[in-house]
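Hey,

Quick one before I head out. I ran the complex with zinc ion overnight. Inputs first:
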Amino acid sequence: MRVCGKLCDTGEVVTARLEAGRIAGFEAGVRDPAVGGPDVWLAAGFLDLQLNGYAGHDFNVGTWADPAEVSADLYPILESAARAGTPLFCPTITTNSAERMRGSLAALTRALDADPRLVRAVPAIHVEGPFLSPEEGPRGAHPLEHIRPPDWDEFQRLQEAAGGRIRLYTLAPELDGALPFIEKLTASGVVAAMGHTAASPETIREAARSGARVSTHLGNGAHALIRRHPNYLWEQLAHDDLFATVIADGHHLPPAVLKCVARVKGPERLAVVSDAVSLGGLAPGSYAGGRHEVLPSGKIVVAGTPYLAGAGHLMDTGVANLVRFTDLSLAQAVRCAAAVPARILGLEGRKGELRVGCDADLTLFRLSDQGPLETVATLCAGEVVFRAA
Ligand SMILES: [Zn+2]
């Protein structure tokens, strides 16, 4: 198959030749493409490191009984992501009882084992919690009754239920036993990420020394009021060994903060994530038995508090906002959605780049002054998974 578009760095129109799910070569100009054309941007497919659910569907169900039920939740999320230019994502399992987290992971794993299309879309699973700060603010919307200190045996049971697919793990490094836990995670090939944390600057540095490599949605899952300096935000910003992920939905971080984080971390250390939840894309109103609320702005909050309860926008919004609110170029913003997330997962050389030999995960889009990117087509391992009508 041939796919045509403009390269984001030079604007040059090229046609990519795809063979056996990989990029086999590039030719200049328009060469009889099946997808795309000279007026659309061509980028490596976006990889969302943090996707909880969307449009009423959730990866954190934990009670799926049969494959049909699993599919009823998984495929709509897959399709929503593809429509937002995102062929690849990490289903994110969040704080709950050990039994329920294992249930969600086991159900997800059964679904992945049964369908190569899902396997291609899911390079890894991200677990966020339950080893997070119990403090109001850093805890965010994670249920207090299920927050607990790090437990390596529990992690191993989660990893077993996930068939070894957990590759990214977010925890708070200040909890009892967190630093040795981070060392064990790292030694077992899982990327340790700090998030929902109230850690001291010293503990942030110790966590990085222990192997933590990522700050999860930096600037969110934090106190509403904080000592101006020193604090855990400056420390993570200043630490050059730490990648930062950001939720660039326009609600989680003000544009000025997003711009500063992007400038400090730079396009090789910044990854945009959606952190979208099942309420994303739903009409304003009260949900989850009145616990959560979707506001008319699309903001999702813990009812009656200023705390956000996950995001309602996907990667098409995040990438457009990076271009709009920061001084990253389009090519750099796209790297933050593809190359950097792939590098965080250790997939460099295979995913996240428009290069011969890499998997043919591709995003074709147009960009305008307002709103999300307009996805023209999304390909996952050479297969068209979304195409605009
Ligand atoms: Zn979070």
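The domain at 45-352 is CATH 3.20.20.140 (TIM Barrel).

Talk tomorrow,
K.
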